[in-house]
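Q: Got a minute? One more chain.
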Amino acid sequence: WGGGGGGGASVGAIQLPAGLKRKLQALNYPELESACLGGQDYFKIILWLEEEKIRLYEKIDRKVLREFNKNWYAHVADYAKELGVPAEGLNEKDVALKLKVLNGLTNVAVHDVYRDKAEADELVVAAQKGSADAGEKQRLTLLIPAVNKLLDQFSLPLLPENAADADTVAALRCIHARVCPPAAESSGTPFDLDRLPIGIPIDDPEVRRAAAVLRVMHGLELQQLQVNINHVINELQCLTADPKTDARLGRVGR
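A: Always. Here it is, folded:
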């Protein structure tokens, strides 16, 4: 692990938070039982993360991390900075900063491992255990064949033979939604073109509806026109209310 003894255990064996310890466990850190924020145990975690997981430095350049001397914290601060982990002022006594740096480097390591496995197509997603695996008795198993027939009719995914009751109920809800689709929600009062005043006498109901549609469209255009006019007025007021904004006038102020 390197030499030098500048790391001491003046901070004591301050244990790692449970969340950080779980991340190190997921990375298969070999000395998890002794992992802490004090002395060489802390040094070893940082060094292990670089040598086994992150590998930012070339092998020969890791010498500065292997030598546990008085300059070690300065070297780690530079190293963490290259990885985007804030570490300015890192020292043996600042436990909060040591924890922040270690957590940040651990996150980098987890990200690198995940990315490598994703690129190599080695990620395995564990299937969630249904309530049937938990020992709970399933009461809707006999319905699964009939439900699957209905699901197939609507081109929906079929249930497995050992589907949990919760999945069977969810499938039945999907079928119900297809058989009895919810009515479209109406917002406000329905718009009746026949009752809309158009301002001109027209006897033909179809022509009257067409005129009503044209009047509605004209009203919408007038509304947009008013919005545009308000915008132009606002822009003009911004220009005329403060003459200091136009530097081309060659004068500042009044």
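A: Residues 1-11, 130-134 have pLDDT under 50 and may be disordered.
Q: Perfect, thanks.
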